[in-house]
Amino acid sequence: MTPSTALAESVIAALEQRGLTLGVAESLTGGAVTSELVGVPGASRVLLGGVVAYATPLKSSLLHVPESLLREHGAVHPEVALAMARGVREATGTAGRGADVGIATTGVAGPDPQDGAPVGRVFVAVVDARAELVRQLDVPSDRPGVRRAAVDAVLELLLNHLSGSSGGQEAASVGARE
Amino acid sequence: MTPSTALAESVIAALEQRGLTLGVAESLTGGAVTSELVGVPGASRVLLGGVVAYATPLKSSLLHVPESLLREHGAVHPEVALAMARGVREATGTAGRGADVGIATTGVAGPDPQDGAPVGRVFVAVVDARAELVRQLDVPSDRPGVRRAAVDAVLELLLNHLSGSSGGQEAASVGARE
Fold first, then answer.
1. What is the pLDDT along chain B (178 residues), one digit of tens a residue?
2. What is the complex's ipTM, to 2 decimals?
């Protein structure tokens, strides 16, 4: 079992235990976060779905990230990650009710820099009704390595938040806004 | 390199050579198709994005699959796969123009049957302006095996279509409607 798979199992179990639903917004990870979660038997009880907004305009059209934010800062920015996580709660909602939790990834997998951000710069975000968390990574790796690190980071941030351990020191280091 | 990775590289190259854009709609594969494609450097020149409509209602809300179709046949049906592929062309469009090609997966990864369909039953679809192709698989495998087979099948169907080899015998066997 890979670390990602173990994390995904823990995330699904933690969500199910708390009766929470999840929506996933991805850019550089391109579906890998959602795929890890779907790999867990019983995922359908908590995972509603996901949006891979790979082309920048889709971050606005599918996830309601403000176009002004994308124009000003580009797609690799903490506020964009947070807006994606907020937007996917709404996008994956059913019966007029959004997903309880939204998570998001945006960053530069390489081989080339993007929007002024270097290869390896990643932001992951978790948003629910009580918290908005975002964390920056700078991953010294190649394209697959950056993507894998982003998958694990967003699952870890979610798991820590669900476990109630995202306060204090960690909250400060990840730019939590609870 | 896995067979899926080699297929993804061929698909990205074939799309780029033809100047075509792609949108991906996934159910049981849960982002794995999109993730394989994003793994290819340069994918951003052709891949616009994807929608993982894992919960059945999202197939209507995000991909415009008719609710009547889902009520009548459930989510694991060739017409649902085709409707998802059509819907994702529109959903991933930018600047008022849909994606040139849409592909889709729906099926039962298990461990339990769904909507009257057995574990391993999968439909994959490819839709563009000139063709609508759908193919049924029955995969005698476990959850990871069924999902991997679905990823490879939809990439193969797309690659064959782009290569112009989906006519004749194969078109008949996959239920092509060109």
1. 788 999 999 999 999 999 999 999 999 999 999 999 999 999 999 999 999 999 999 999 999 999 999 999 999 999 999 999 999 999 999 888 999 999 999 999 988 999 899 999 999 999 999 999 999 999 999 999 999 999 999 999 999 999 986 443 344 345 444 4
2. 0.91
Contact at CB, B52 and A147, closer than 8 angstroms: no
Helix (H) or strand (E) holding A53: none
Which chain B residue's Cα is nearest to A43?
B54
- For B34, the closest of A52, A57, A92 (CB atoms) is A52
Query: How does pLDDT run across A93-147, given as a tens digit for each residue?
Result: 988 899 999 999 999 998 899 989 999 999 999 999 999 999 999 999 999 999 9
Q: Report the DSSP beta bridge partners of residue A16.
A: none
Partner-chain residue, chosen from A48, A52, A54, that has the shortest CB–CB distance to B54: A48
d(Cα B36, Cα B112) in Å, to the nearest integer?
26
φ, ψ of residue B95 to 5 degrees: the values are 55, 40
Is the preceding peptide bond at A41 cis, omega within 30 degrees of 0? no
* pTM of the predicted model as reported, rounded to 2 decimal places: 0.92
Whether residue A54 lies within 8 A of chain B, CB to CB, comes out as yes
Contacts of A147 in chain B (CB under 8 A): 38-39
The contacts of residue A114 (CB under 8 Å, 6+ apart) are: A74, A75, A76, A108
Task: Choose among B93, B86, B164: nearest CA to B126.
Answer: B86
Report the chain A residue with the minimal C-alpha distance to residue B111: A41
Q: How far is CA A100 from CA A86, B48, B54, in A?
A: 10, 27, 16
In chain A, DSSP assigns E strands to: 22-26, 47-52, 101-107, 121-127, 132-138
Of B32, B44, B51, the CB nearest to A35: B32
